[in-house]
Amino acid sequence: MNKHIYKLLLLICHSLMLSHSTTMGQGTEKIYLSGTGAENTKTWDFYCSDGMNSKKWTTIEVPSCWEQQGFGAYNYGHDEYKNRLNETGTYRYTFSIPKNWSSKQVRIIFEGVMTDATVKINGRLAGPTHQGAFYEFEYDITKLLKFGRQNTVEVFVEKHSGNASINDAERKADFWIFGGLFRPVYLEAKPGENIHRVAIDAKANGSFKADVHISNIRKADLLEVNIQNAKGEIVETFKAELNGTPSRISGNIKNPVTWNPEQPYLYQAIFKLKSGDKTLHQHVEKFGCRTVEVRAHDGIYVNDVRIKFKGVNRHTFHPDYARTSSKALSIEAVNLMKEMNMNAVRMSHYPPEKHFLDVCDSLGLFVLDELSGWQRPPYDEKIGRKLLKEMIVRDVNHPSIILWDNGNEGGWNDQLDNDFAKLDIQQRKVLHPWEDFRETNTKHYIDYNYLSLDGYSKRKIFFPTEVLHGLYDGGHGAGLEDYWLRIWNHPLAAGAFLWVFADEGIARTDRDGQIDMDGNHAPDGILGPYMEKEASFFTIKKVWSPIHIEKRYITPDFNGIFNIENRYHYTNLSQCTFFVEWLKYSEIHDGKSIETTFKEEVNLNLMPDQKGKLKVTLPSNWKESHLLKITAKDLKGSTIATWTYPVQSPEAIVNQLSDMGDTSEVILTEDEIQYKVQVAELIYTFNKEDGQLTEVRSGGTINPLKNGPVFVSKEKAVKQVESITNDDGSVSINTVYEKGDSVGWKIKKSGLLELKVAYEPERMAPYAGISFSYPEESVSGMRWMGEGPYRVWKNRMVGTNFGIWEKSYNQTMTGHSGFDYPEFKGYHAETYWVEINGKDNKGFKVYIKSNDIFFRMLTPDQSDDGRTTMIDFPAGDISFLHGINAIGTKFKETSKLGPQASNYFYHPNNIYRRKLRMQLVFDFRK
Question: Could you tell me the superkingdom of the organism this chain comes from (predicted)?
Answer without folding.
Answer: Bacteria
